[in-house]
Structures are given as C-alpha cells and as structure tokens.
Model the fold of this input.
Amino acid sequence: TLDHLRACIGQDVQFEGQQCQIIELLEDGPTLVLSCITASLTIQPDQHGEAHRRVPRTLTLPVWDSSGEKLSADLLNLGLIKQDR
Done:
C-alpha cells in the first residue's frame, strides 16, 4: 500500500549496485524517488538551464509495471515488499 511505501522514506536500499536512499513517494503514478548516495554527483541546472552546483543523482521508480496490474520488478528488487508466492 502507499502507506507502507510512505513509511519507507529515509530507508537505505541497494539499486543497480548503488547505495541509495528513498527520499519521496510521488502519489501521482505512484512513483518512488531515490537519491544515489554512492554515485558520482551530477550537475544540476537552475531554471534558466545554467549549471551552478553538483547534487546526488536522483532516480524515479514506478510502483506498478507498464500494465498497471503488477508491482514493478525494480520495486520488488528493492526488497521493501514481500511477495506472496
């Protein structure tokens, strides 16, 4: 449920070999937002497109797969949700 995912905000997870932290749950989608702790910093442009600072890489992971019927494989790989078999 969204409440379960919301409770995971702040939790450290492994995603594609990188240490990340869950920083947000966007309910539109819904989508999890991860901040990569161990990845190299990326340059963040301002509203005019000019680069002024380096920030951790951010990733968004959809909660549902493309059909909208099953949880996405990326979400399941984080180990936040136990699958019923």
Observations:
- The longest strand covers residues 18-26.
